Every structure is written in structure tokens, then in C-alpha cells.
Protein 1
Amino acid sequence: METVNDKRRTREIRVVKRVLNVNERMAEQNRRRFAEKGVFVLNVMSSPGSGKTATLQKTLERIMPEIKAAVIVGDVSTTHDADRLSVTGAPVVQVNTDAFGGDCHLAAHVIEKAADEIDLDAITLLIVENVGNLVCPAEFDIGEDARVVVLSVTEGEDKPVKYPTMFRLCDAALLNKIDLLPHLDYEKDKALGYIHQVHPGMPVFEMSARTGEGLDAWIAWLKGKISSKLKAQS
Ligand SMILES: Nc1nc2c(ncn2[C@@H]2O[C@H](COP(=O)(O)OP(=O)(O)O)[C@@H](O)[C@H]2O)c(=O)[nH]1
Ligand SMILES: [Mg+2]
């Protein structure tokens, strides 16, 4: 027998599915648009404070101007991250989700509008710094070519198993703030074990956005991804 609660649950599931279907269609449209323009899109996700902006600052400093890049950055409010990223010289569009209900993620239609503010003919890499959250952003395809999750050593070892969807769907993980390891009782091997339990074989780049350690391997991986997409298209 279906209870009132069961009916309510069914209705909620249908609504969620509908929202996600609409998002998937929009994401495919974005993907076609970016492919036509020869733009590689990287979706960077993590919990707040793990070092997305710091990592992107250092990454942009190293890859530009060889790779022409732009950034869309999402936060509930403020333009702090856009201010920090603009210093690199890359065009930056800040999205504040408090204008539409304080969403904890960037949906595909938001990326479509934000991309209108960028000259896609002038770039080969569009980086999206998603809203800080290990749950919602993983659910929303935005039309990206690669997804990475930043995980810092100050967050504890078990986040990959607590938030497995994020780690399952990402193509690589950046284990950030390794400069702090001497001051912590963080068990790095335990964290790596959890990551690979959820996503066997996932590339993990141990790095510090503060000292620059480990950035070369991450950047080589990113450049490899960009050139395989561009080669496959030409
Ligand atoms: N010690 C250390 N601090 C870092 C590192 N990366 C980021 N931080 C600091 O962590 C805080 C949050 O970084 P931010 O880039 O704003 O994180 P986001 O919220 O993920 O974009 C800032 O105070 C950064 O300076 C790192 O590799 N080592
Ligand atoms: Mg940030």
C-alpha cells in the first residue's frame, strides 16, 4: 500500500529527475558549442577552502600565455575569487548564486550564460571553479571535458568514502596543502586508499599551491588532456 509519504517521495524523485534531464540537455548543448570553438573545459570542484582558487592561480601563472585560458568562478556571494584570479591576466567571470537562490553548484544553463561573457574564439581552455561543495556540483554536468576534485590534507582522510559520487565521477584528484603534512597527523596512504577504493586507478597529484611542489605533474596531465581533445577534433 502506498502511503502519503511514499507518494510524496515519488513526486520528489520525478521533480529531481526532470531538473537533471533539463540540465543534461543543456550540458550537451554547451559541450557542442565548446567543441565547435575548440575550447577544452575543466570543471574544478571541492569543499570550501581546500585550495581551488590558489591552485588555479598557480596553474594559470604557469600555463599562460602558452595556453590561452579564461575562468568562470562560482560562489554564493562576493567577487573575492574573481579578484584573485584576475591578477593572472586571464579573463574571469564571477557568478554569484545568491542572485538565484544561493545554489550550491553551477548548472549547465548558468555556464551557458556566463560563457556569453567570454570570447571563446580567443581561448583554448575554459576553467570552471565550481561552488565549494562536495555533493551538488557532482550531480550537474556542465558540458565539461574533464573534472577534477581538490582535496586538502586538512580535511581528514575519509572524504572520498563520505562523498563517493564526487570522487567516482572526477577524472583526477589534487591532494593539496602537502606543505602542511609535517604539522598534522594526516595518514596520506589511508586517504589514497579511500580514493582508490571509490575510484580504482584515479590519478592523484600530491601538491602544494603554496610552495608549487607537485604542480608540474598536474600541469602535464592537464596539457595532455587538452592536446588529445584538440588533436581528436582536427
Ligand atoms: N598551507 C597551504 N595553504 C593553502 C594551500 N592552498 C590554499 N591554501 C590556503 O587555504 C585557504 C583557502 O584557499 P582557497 O584557494 O581560497 O580555497 P577554495 O575555497 O577551494 O578556492 C587560503 O587561505 C589559501 O591561502 C596550500 O597548498 N598550502
Ligand atoms: Mg575559491
Protein 2
Amino acid sequence: MPLIDTHAHLFDERFGNELPTVLERASAAGVERVICIGIDRESSLQTVEIAKKYPLVVAAVGIQPNHAAEAKPGDWDEIVRLAESEPRVVAIGETGLDRYWDRSPFDLQEDYFARHMELSRRLNKPFVIHCREAEADVVKALRMQQKQGQLRAVMHSFTGDIATAQECLEMGLYISFAGMVTYPKAQDLREVAKIVPLDRLLVETDCPYLAPQPVRGKRNEPASVVHTAAQLAEVKGVSIAELEEHTTRNAKALFGV
Ligand SMILES: [Zn+2]
């Protein structure tokens, strides 16, 4: 069964000029699609270029909360332009809220989060949520947005608790797990994964970060999503094939790929 890596930062300098071999390894590992996610204007432009060059890749464009403070006038307009005009752009983000790094004033993060959600709604493309130590704030913002209609989004690299996961599921969101769920000490996170229904579960690498256990400490890449999928299959008590079938179907439904 094929897999979809729903969150990768292929523009990262750590991939250098190795992208062709990185993507070959992904295909060989059974990855049929990689969603490359921008974090600011420059990387969103790069993400679109990568998606145009490699058929395996599609793009999401946005300004990640930690990069909101450094965004210059016109950067947001460029994100909007890419989202409106580039057919390879399938989603908006990543966006969200982050109290851990504290790199952007929180009210500015909230402003950008709302803009991304409104753009998502206007263009009928899903949005990708980054949430770090800001679960209550994210849920509150989502509840506000939900008043406009059904949300179409994913909580990426989920690290919240069961209560947060339940609130997100109740709002119709998908929940995606990255390599962290494979770490020996991440028993709490595996308990969260256990309650996420198979029809709401996604897998991702968040590469080049968060390499799963067997390749931990190395530069992560889309091919390694297989390790996270195998761990989730174990947690959910299903075969790897079944896990892949569900997560791939979910990714296709959410991103329309
Ligand atoms: Zn990311």
C-alpha cells in the first residue's frame, strides 16, 4: 500500500542538492505523495517550485507563527497570490500558534492564524495547523472559525493531550503524527494516538526534523514515514497495510490529491 507524507520541508538547506535521490528513496519506500509545507514567503515560493519540478510533490503555502514577526510588507500578499494562482498548491499553512519559542508576539500570531483560516475558507483549500504549548488558544481560535462553517484542517505533528485531541476530532479535524510517536518515552503520545479513529489519522515526517526511532538523530526524509506508520499500526492494533490504506485515503480526502 502507498503512503502519503503529509508534512515535509523539502526546501530545507539540509537537503542540499540531494532532492532527486531523497524523492527516489521515498518512491522506493512506497510513498506516493509528499506534501511540502512552506513556513514563510521565501520557502513558500521554493515549495511551489519543488512541486512544479517533481510530480511526487504538492505544495502548501503560508507563514508559520514563529516567522510572523519577520514577515515583511507584501509577504502575505505573495502567499495569497500563490494560493490563488498556483494549481500545485493544495493547502494553506503551516499556520497556528506557538508559545514555546516565543519568537513572534502572540497577538500577531493570532492575526496570521485568522488570515490563513479565512484564506483556506475562501479558496476551499484545507489548512495545516502548527500548535506548540498553545493548545487552549488554538482550540479557542478554531471554535471561533467554526462559526463560519465546517473546518477542513489537520493538527500536524500532534503533541497535545487526549482532551485536546477529542476537541479537535469533535470539530472534524484530522490528527497527524510525526516521528515523535515512535520514541520510547512517548507513551503518553501513543495513548493519544490510540483514541484517534482510523478515518481521522494522518502520518507525516516533518522532515528534516523529528526522525523516527530507527533513524533517530539523522536528517529525516519522506521515506522514513514508513517507521511512523508501522508504529501507529501497532498502537491501533491493525496491520501496516490497513493503517496505510486509511491514512492515505484520509490524506487524499483532506488535500484533494
Ligand atoms: Zn512543519
Protein 3
Amino acid sequence: MLIDTHAHLYLDQFEDDLEAAIDRAREAGVTRILLPAIDVPSVHRALELCERFDGLYAMAALHPTETKEATSSDFDAVAALCDDPHVVAVGESGLDYYRDRSFDDRQQEFLRLHIRLAMDRKLPIVFHNREAFSDLIRIVEEEWGNSKEMDGRRGVFHCFTGTPEEAARIVQAGFVVGIGGIVTFRNAGLAERVRSIPLDRIVLVTDAPWLAPMPYRGKRNEPAYVRFVAERLALEKEVSLEEVAGVTSRTAREVFGIG
Ligand SMILES: [Zn+2]
């Protein structure tokens, strides 16, 4: 059993073959798929899919790149959607400094709002990070405090590509690391760096339709391919695929409170 904790199945890239993609996921052993939000309409689309298919779960948040234009009423809509029983997490929130540095302050402001929402609703939170790790972890630690008690904080730093020191800081802060297709890219160096992360602090992500693992690099990604991520982790950790599947699925179920 595998869990893809991060797939944007509601996007147009799945318009033509969504059912087939979900069937392929089942055949690959992927029993649960979590659908992180980008904006308010994406939460509604994710909730429709949760009604249609078993084993799907939604999240609610404004993606950091959306916060340039987002309003406080958009955030209020996200907060209201967190009451839906299909919504299992706040996500994806975070910081993205890759393309546009003109609204860092707005990104940080919305990040703090999302963290407070997760704390208030006792929900886990999924963080997106691109070239912003030091600000992201600092704000997370500021908002949650540095107390040794984990006080219920749960969540994922998804599509992690950082250093072993950064992974250790995520784990220290009470969160888990989401590993995706980049671990299979020969030139990324991530495979070596994941060896130091305890297996039980890792969950699997695809970030479908993006970041397809080898041997599908450059193609559309889909939840079935999370298996290639699990296989690569098994190789690096020198454990069986079954162990990777079992341990990462147990962690995902704990973090997201799903059965
Ligand atoms: Zn994503």
C-alpha cells in the first residue's frame, strides 16, 4: 500500500483520463491520494473528486504564488472550507521566491495566516518551498514557538530538495519531509541526501502533474508513479519496497489523521 500525499488531480492535465489515472494508481498499490489546493476554486474541484472516488482527500489553502492577487475574503473562504469533512489539511501554503520577489511580504503574511488557521483547526499543514527555506522555517518556528512539546503540530514540507541539515531542522520542528520524483533524477544529488532522513519522517509525494520521476521525467506525472519514488527510497535506505510502503503510509495516515 502506497499513499501519494500530494497530487493536483483536479487540474486540466487530467481532464481526459482521470478515471484511468486513478485506476492505474490502484493497480500500482496507491490506495489514498491527497489533493493540495492552489486557490479557492481548486478546493471546490477537489471536493467534487472526493465525492466521486474513494480514497481521495482534499486540502484548502492559497498557494504562495497566488497570494500576490489574493484577498482576505479568499482567505476567509479557505478557512470556511476547512470545515468540510473531506478537507484533511491546510495546504499548500509556504513561500516561493523563485520567479517573483516583488511580494515576499504578502507571501509571508499569508503563510502566517495559514499556520494560525492550522493551529486553530488542529489540522496538519503542507508547506511549499522554493528558494525560501530559511524564511519558511523561521516563520514556522516563530508561529508555533520553539517549545519542546510538539503541541499537536503536524505537517509536511513537500517536494523536499534541501540539505541533510535542513531535513533535520524540519524533523526537529515536528514535521515530516515529502520526497518526490526529484529523488530519482541522477543529477539532483537528492538520493544521497535522503539517506540521513529517518524513514519514519518521510512521506511520498508526486506533485502530479509536475515533476514526474524517472523513467517518465519530463512527461505528465500521475499518482501511480509514486511507486518509482518508493523504489528509489528503498534502494537508498537499503530496505525492501514493502518496508518503505508500510512505514511511509503509516506516517502519512498519522500526519493527516486518515484511516
Ligand atoms: Zn503542489
